Amino acid sequence: MEEKRATLTGSLVVLFLIIAILGVSILHYSVAPHIPIVLATIVVSLYGLKLKFQWKHLENSMVKGISYGIPAILILSLIGVLIGVWALNSTVPTITYYGLHVLSPSLFLVSAVLITAVVAVMTGSSLSAMGTIGVSLMGVAYGMGISPEMTAGAIVSGAIFGDKLSPLSDTTNLTAATAKVDVFEHIRHMLWTTVPALIITLLIFGGIGIFSNQGGADTSQVGEMISTLQSEFMITPVTLLSPLLIIGLAVKRVKPVPSLALGLIVAVLTTFYTSPGINLGGIMTAAHSGYTAETGVDAIDNLLSLGGLESMLFGVSLIIVALAFGGVFKGVGIAHTLIDSIKGVLKTKGNVISSTVVSCFGVNFIIGEQYLSIILPGQMLEDSYKNANLHPKNLSRTLEDAGSILHPLIPWGVIGAFVMTTLDVGMGYIFFTFISIVTPFITLFYAYTGLTLTPLNKDTESIVDMDEEENKSETNAL
Description:
This protein is mainly α and about 475 residues long. About 70% of the residues lie in helices and about 0% in strands.
């Protein structure tokens, strides 16, 4: 049977059904996004079968889509295991203990943004930053009585900012490669949008801390928590060896998975010192099922009963179904049809950039996958930037500003699932992820004023000819 191309009318009907399913299920019934996404996948698959696609093609599209998320799944699983061991060996209690002494409630949210940003820049991974220092910051916030949703928003804002400006970041390198521009020039060009967005984010969080009740947060239980942590756990800098090793390896450009694995080994070895009498079976139990605190103080028990591989299965399963949906959505050609339909309005620089923003957000919202939100619009709109006399680094910056930076606002996306699972918060965190909310507006402001936009005939040395690079690599290999 001959395959048919997805029509615009058919694609719009399918898109409407998907939005209706997700909206009613998640917003009205407040159910977890897994089953609604499965239902959306069925709708897209039925449309694919109507277009005469073989089931094998649809199945392979789902498998290919899931394959994009394997690195994130590995990182998520390792962090779950690592957090369980960190809670057992007093790493999380130690960081919480020091944090309760040092951080001020009125400046805590600002500090959370900056601390997470630094870690993300050094590690090149927003997931690693949120899953390590982010967890500890949530513990400090809990002790100070600061809103978990606000804290999570601050953590995500810092992590996303740091990830975007790190040359170690996979999405940063992917975006530069998609737009065919030098990665360091791409990072420099992003400063025009990310730095103002960070400043605005810090001002908002600073205002919240000073003018709301955050400055006078209920710290009555902080003293009790500090004394309990000191009496029930071994508070020692030795427990910081594992997180410091992970950060050090990231600085050396070691990838997140091996960095986390080595950090886990050190954490396990440290446990034998910080938890006398523990055996390997007890460590493996904490790694799998998480650590359960039994101090008799509810605040501490609620805070430190966390981690374990099992705790990450919600996020892992969400990533799998979301990426399977994204794969089949792309496989039947709906994504390309929808993006192609807007090319007719791409006659001005502002419209080209704003169309990129809309396309990236649309892919994020419908598919929930940040890699595809970069790749699909980048591939489809590359020629439009050339026709508008726009340098490829304008494309790469916009793909980041509306693709990977907007991605945390999608609760059923990879990062959304990671945040809700790892930081143990609901979808309310998205309203406080200010850097993701502000950045696209800065992008659109530049798009229609022309500020910071680089024309195609300038800075041509930063344009990477991918075919030429591939030929060089083949020649060097020979």
